[in-house]
Amino acid sequence: MATPWPVKHPERLQLYTLATPNGQKVSVALEELGLPYEAHTVNIREGQQFLPEFLAINPNNKIPAIVDPNGPEGELRLFESGAILLYLAEKTGKLLPKNPAARMECIQWVFFQMGGIGPMFGQFGHFYKYAADKCLDPYPKERYRNEARRLLGVLEQRLAGRQYIMGDEYSIADIAIFPWVGCLDWGYGGYEVIGLDDFPTVMAWYQRCKGRPASEKGLKVGDLD
């Protein structure tokens, strides 16, 4: 059986993705960095994430994943979106502060997304949208709504007086977080129930990130619709 993802440009970085927040993080970063890449859409509706060809790249059967033929010691296979963002930033020397203290601060905010915003926003979306007819107990939806609002409050405070997470410089911290903020609306239909208007600084920052030319391209990569 032929692979669903034939490689036409083996000299380029290969991206296996879907237009979800985690997938968008990597495609937006690649567009920002100007790295040549070839994108392959992994259709999770059809279970393609469980195909042997994909599991050989990511045994955790989640998007995104990359294969870089020009890795530090030859071909490099990498999964977990935060790890990929850090790798791409270090590979190019861009989107990550060079000052050691600022560099660690930036990585800290990437981990804030990986450990907090992604899982908590995702659980809100699950119980609010996808499991709305399966779980009638209001507790899960209320718990994750409240936690999503708490995390947005942390962002609101951080972004006060700043253009981006790290100040004037756009970084992988912004790229890690802003697709998830957007997903609360376009992905989960939760704009009103979350109360995104209560976080005007976050929403203004989101629009700045979303409106960048690289974002306009990267957010569409792997779109099934």
TrEMBL record:
Signal peptide: none
Magnesium as UniProt keyword: no
PROSITE patterns, alphabetized: GST_CTER (PS50405), GST_NTER (PS50404)
Transferase keyword on record: yes
SUPFAM superfamilies: GST C-terminal domain-like, Thioredoxin-like
Protein name, entry field: Glutathione S-transferase
UniProt keywords, alphabetically: Transferase
PANTHER family reported in the protein's UniProt record: GLUTATHIONE S-TRANSFERASE GSTA, GLUTATHIONE S-TRANSFERASE-RELATED
Domain GST N-terminal: 10-96
InterPro entries hit by this protein: Glutathione-S-Trfase_C-like, Glutathione-S-Trfase_C_sf, Glutathione_S-Trfase, Glutathione_S-Trfase_N, GST_C, Thioredoxin-like_sf
Residue intervals of the GST C-terminal domain: 99-225
Species the sequence originates in: Gallaecimonas xiamenensis 3-C-1
Gene Ontology molecular function: any one: transferase activity
